[in-house]
Amino acid sequence: MMQISQLYVYPVKSLRGVALSEAHLTRQGIVHDRKFMLLKVHHDDPESPRARRLENMHVPYFPEMGLFRTALPSGSDDPNGTVRVDFVPPGGRPVKTIEIPLCPDASQLELLDVTMHQSATKAYEMPSRYSDWFSDCFGYTVLLAYLGGNLRPVLGSFSPNIAASQAGTQSGWLSTMSTMLPQLGSTKDDEGLTFADCAPLLVVTEESLSDVSARLPDGEEMDITKFRPNIVLKGSPAAWDEDYWGALALGPISIALTQNCARCQSINVDYTTGKFGAGASGAVLKRLMKDRRVDTGTKYSPIFGRYGFPGRAGAGQMLRVADGATVTRRNEARTRFDWPGLTN
What is the Cα 10 distance to its own chain's centre? Predict the structure, then answer.
């Protein structure tokens, strides 16, 4: 029987995550997952020095983000808890640390417009002391944004409701209307996203990870955290079996697995240098290109892992390492990635 072997949460998008032994689940994934995001500040107009353009920061474009570790000193259940961020520069330079409230009071914070992968939302600009700390670490001006209670719409057929309708499990006018929704995105509150890319959860298996490690020179193993999973399972019958999973049961919790996760150069980042790796560690993406470009919607990107959406009954439930996992639905064929702007 399969079981959960690892759990991870990523309080600040694209920074390194926190390993957990147990985690509270919400409809938006593991509690506190990707509620913060960094944006680079550009001043493009010399005639308007106060005007600024904000650029979303993602680790494949800013590999130096791999130098930041995160931790939850008081755990994930403390409403007054913090996320500790450690900046670990290369070369043995001193580590810098800051603590950020997990649930800051946003009543006096300025609202920002943030659009990520064509999915727009509002966010709050955190007080300058936090942004200034990150700016000092990066060596250029950045801004720390907090999502608060805002959410991003789900696009494409990533929503379980839309995925189900396209699989033929709905009929009549409801099915017709549902197939029109991918152009608009799912705007139901309980299906909204945080700053996670395309879904609340990412599920991967140790068996597929072992296949990746087998592509590396003897003695080298792939770091699973570079794939940024939330849930790692062990005991799958074979590597890549998850390509065909449509749904999981983790005890009483149901997870709809609607799409594959297409990979980018973030898996080539060396977390000790904040740069793309040298040698085999910097060529993992290329090695996966040979036989893992298996999704016709993203034919130039290799696949590792499945995007998941918790069922309504899962909200408030606990996930624990060693919990059992069962595939409750298998697809006859691989799903086709269709998030607008991310297909290739």
Answer: 8
